[in-house]
Design brief:
The protein has 12 helices and 15 strands. It is an alpha/beta fold.
């Protein structure tokens, strides 16, 4: 085995470069992963642009990481050499802060954050905390599993934890990196699924993904359209536009929920009238724990839910990142290493 590996690091804000690094041994409670695939997520921009609070450069981005364990540190008993595992955004919790003690590890006050507090998966090799690992089902390729560790668990968790019932009217705003998975999860969780997008060209895709109804905001007011259907019990807001999210509040049924998972740069402005009169609410939902990721992967296998992906070699990370940021990806960009490229098809 070579004693060096390729990585793509942020050397200065806005600059991604391929470098050669020394392979290191995992510490106590850690494993070393030979990376096969890593998704490119919009959240990576906070690392690439150097704006994530507390970030120090250089840093390797990437928090949708799939690979195989090739070395195990002391104190690790559950995981085995050769096992395929994944690492998401929250790659370890401290276990002692108030959030963790109350069973809310996703909101740990001192988390290990892939690509922020520790080097992520834009690399051939990654050191990961064993407590942050998720097991990967054989029926998923590494490339298609990678986005499920972020976009997948984010949308799946938001919907399954919203207190909804089968048959409830649920709308998904946006049919992009998050939304195209949100529509699939909503349909397979048994909800009356409405996709909200702009342009008739998205209607066929939305319905192919499982939407019962498509609302084109270019010709119809989404909130009015939802009220014609009786109001949505929940709206999953995935498209990063605060100006588009705010007005959706009026499309909710009584006690309905606007669940924000896409993070816009502009403000979300709300009219207090539908908020107060009808007991509607708005809240955010962030990713999930490693066991939540495993639930997401297993449900995706069960219901044959898959992300729509484009793959590029690790060495072309800068190009893949730029394509994602320009909104040209359909719908998730995934970096594939030489080990991932050699992977066989999933087990049927």
């Amino acid at each position: 085995m070579k004693d060096t590996y390729k990585a793509v690091e942020v050397s200065a804000p806005g600059e991604l470069r391929v470098v050669e690094r020394q392979v290191s041994e995992p510490g106590a409670g850690q494993v070393r992963i030979r990376v096969e695939a890593c998704g490119i997520c919009h959240t990576d921009a906070a690392t690439v642009m150097g704006i994530y609070p507390g970030l120090t450069l250089p840093r390797v981005p990437g928090h949708e990481v799939i690979g195989r364990i090739e070395a195990i540190g002391s104190g690790v008993s559950k995981w085995k050499i050769g096992q395929r595992v994944g690492v998401g955004l929250i790659a370890g919790d401290d276990g002692v802060c108030e959030s963790c003690r109350r069973g809310d590890a996703v909101n740990c006050q001192n988390p290990v954050v892939s690509g922020v507090t520790a080097d992520g998966g834009y690399a051939e090799v990654m050191i990961a905390e064993a407590r942050g690992l998720a097991s990967i089902p054989d029926k998923l390729t590494s490339a298609e599993a990678a986005p499920l560790l972020c976009a997948g668990v984010t949308t799946y968790n938001a919907l399954r934890n919203a207190g909804l019932r089968g048959g409830d009217l649920v709308a998904v705003q946006g049919i992009g990196g998050l939304g195209h998975l949100g529509v699939q999860f909503a349909r397979h969780l048994g909800f009356h699924t409405v996709a909200i997008g702009k342009g008739r060209d998205k209607e066929k895709l939305a319905k192919d993904l499982g939407a019962h109804v498509y609302v084109d905001t270019a010709v119809d007011d989404a909130a009015v359209a939802l009220q014609r259907m009786g109001g949505a019990r929940a709206i999953l807001a995935t498209a990063p536009s605060g100006s588009a999210m705010g007005p959706l509040m009026s499309g909710l049924a009584t006690r309905g929920k606007l669940i924000v998972v896409g993070v816009p740069n502009d403000e979300i402005r709300l009219n207090a009238f539908p908020l107060v009169f009808g007991g509607r609410s708005v809240y955010g939902s962030l990713t999930g724990t490693p066991i939540d990721s495993e639930d997401t992967l297993d449900f995706s296998v069960l219901e044959h839910i898959r992300p729509m992906i484009e793959t590029v070699p690790l060495e072309q990370a800068a190009e893949g990142y730029a394509r994602m940021m320009e909104g040209k990806a359909r719908f998730r960009m995934v970096l594939v290493t030489k080990d991932g490229a050699a992977q066989t098809a999933p087990v049927n």
